[in-house]
Amino acid sequence: MTPRQQRFTWIVIGIALLAAAAGFVLNAFQSNLVFFFTPTQIANGEAPKQRIFRAGGMVKEGSLRREGEVVRFVITDTEHDIAVTYTGLLPDLFKEGKGVVAQGEIGSDGLFVAREVLAKHDENYMPPEAQHAMDQAAAAKAAKSLKGTP
Q1: Chain segment 55-89, per-residue pLDDT in tens
Q2: Residue 127 and residue 121 in contact, taking contact as beta carbons nearer than 8 Å
Q3: Neighbours of 104 (CB within 10 A)
Q4: How far apart are the first and last CA of the chain?
Q5: How far is the C-alpha of 54 from the C-alpha of 82, rounded, in Å?
């Protein structure tokens, strides 16, 4: 093999290794990517099926039910509700009427099965995605009520 052919071979091997490394990194990133959806988006079918995602909004008043370690509650964005079930201990700041983000997936029965539940840490903070969703839902509800009045 001539020196030129050896250089070309090493360049091809280097490019192949870089492509393989980039492929592994992108695959790991894609498998760990978790998107956020509101109850309205979930009700409209925008949430992925058979894939983990985050759902956020407010815990609906009067919806919290505890059955041993299993906890059932409803997340709302004031326009739509989604029923959630979670097995485990809830954060200390988890309360009805407060903001929450749950990570999990939609079960075959249409129930959101949470693997992790995150509660906001004080009354001044809500995740930006959840705040934006709540604002949009409130604006849509206000627009509907204005259209309904003569």
Answers
A1: 988 899 999 999 988 999 999 888 889 999 999 88
A2: no
A3: 19
A4: 87
A5: 12
